[in-house]
């Protein structure tokens, strides 16, 4: 997003800037659609406590769709020549929000590799902080 905005800022309306926009859009969308998007759905279904899974998944969907709505509605005003008219520089706004979300995911999303649903429930009940899930050894783990 930042590269797209910087390319447009440096050379607005040029063919080179347009090529950079297309290339960066592909570089952003392909990993998102093949990796991030499917993983978020599985994480949302596996991470919540079994007892609260339906409520947590529903609340997560509400928050996700609301955030998407709030991000998408003003976009036409950002790029409209008769309104704000910042064009591809909207990438600075989107890139900043993506960076904030990446930091939140890095620090708040626990590692669930090789963990069963029961292990995850145990860690929730034990109030293990998300950054310590990887090192936590479950008490009831029968696979070890």
Q: In words, what does this structure look like?
A:
This protein is mostly helical. It folds into two domains: 2-109, no CATH class; 110-144, no CATH class. It has helices at residues 2-10, 15-46, 53-72, 75-79, 90-108, 117-125. It is elongated. The N and C termini lie far apart (44 Å).
List the helices and strands and how they pair.
Layout: H1 2-10, H2 15-46, H3 53-72, H4 75-79, H5 90-108, H6 117-125
Helix pairs in contact: 1-2, 1-5
Keywords:
2 domains, 144 residues, single chain, mainly alpha, elongated
Please outline what is shown here.
The protein has helices spanning 2-10, 15-46, 53-72, 75-79, 90-108, 117-125.
Q: What proportion strand?
A: under 5%
* Overall number of strands: 0
Low-pLDDT regions: none
Please state the structural category: mainly alpha
